[in-house]
């Protein structure tokens, strides 16, 4: 029998999800977010870019504002009202102090106990290449969870009124091929599907399939794949790093 996944911790109140692009959270993670917000927890989103380079048929000046609007609508579906954009350039995000500083500042602003990010490794399951943007933001989020609590790293943040926050207890990596924990997907799955469908312009650029059917098939199959490791229940999986 496959090793079973532990339930994600529930003794927390605030989470911050940090990803590279609009739609990154909607490919499965949003179902977990819906479940959390239903339980009274606060979840905020921070995106490094506006996804302006993500649609080949649309120039960035048009695509960026459109994708921002779709992300805000998508977040609202799952109970997230705070969505921030760091305005790094889509497609060429650079891992380094500037990115770590921006994410550490966001952590100090939101003061989460749980930070969520996307797969930070070079591949998806050792098969498909991950994008440089995902890798850079995922790695920077892991680092910034510690940076946010150290007053001597980015001391200028303190001068800006952002006092250190060392209250991050975990970083949960969604999309990891080494999951350790999971959230029951069923309570939030329908809203997760609608949340991905809110990125209609992007979805229609990806597939000729009916957008709703595409979103439903993709997300339903994704959460079912984890069921054999979570007591037979469809699940959203995370690799959990204690801080």
Automatic annotation (TrEMBL):
Coiled coil start-end: none
Keywords for this protein: Zinc
Pfam families associated with the record: PIG-L
GO molecular function terms listed in the Swiss-Prot or TrEMBL record: hydrolase activity, acting on carbon-nitrogen (but not peptide) bonds, in linear amides
Gene3D superfamilies: LmbE-like (3.40.50.10320)
Bilayer-crossing regions: none
Keyword Transport appears in the UniProt entry: no
Record has Zinc as a keyword: yes
Record GO biological process: glycoside metabolic process
The protein's name in its UniProt record: PIG-L family deacetylase
Source species of the chain: Streptomyces odorifer
């Amino acid at each position: 029998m496959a090793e079973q996944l532990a339930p994600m911790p529930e003794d927390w109140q605030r989470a911050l999800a940090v990803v590279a692009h609009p739609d990154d959270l909607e490919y499965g993670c949003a179902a977990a977010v819906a479940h959390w917000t239903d339980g009274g927890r606060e979840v905020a989103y921070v995106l490094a870019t506006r996804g302006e380079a993500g649609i080949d048929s649309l120039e960035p000046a048009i695509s960026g504002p459109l994708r921002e609007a779709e992300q805000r609508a998508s977040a609202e579906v799952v109970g997230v009202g705070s969505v921030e954009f760091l305005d790094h350039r889509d497609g060429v995000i650079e891992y380094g102090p500037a990115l770590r500083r921006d994410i550490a500042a966001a952590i100090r602003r939101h003061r989460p106990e749980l930070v969520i990010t996307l797969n930070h490794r070079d591949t998806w399951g050792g098969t498909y290449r991950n994008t440089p943007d995902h890798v850079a933001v995922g790695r920077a989020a892991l680092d910034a969870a510690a940076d946010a609590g150290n007053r001597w790293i980015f001391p200028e943040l303190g001068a800006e009124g952002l006092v250190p926050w060392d209250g991050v207890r975990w970083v949960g990596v969604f999309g990891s091929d080494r999951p350790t924990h999971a959230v029951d997907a069923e309570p939030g799955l329908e809203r997760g599907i609608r949340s991905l469908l809110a990125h209609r312009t992007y979805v229609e650029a990806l597939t000729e399939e009916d957008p709703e059917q595409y979103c439903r098939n993709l997300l339903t199959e994704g959460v079912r794949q984890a069921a054999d490791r979570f007591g037979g229940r469809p699940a959203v999986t995370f690799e959990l790093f204690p801080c």
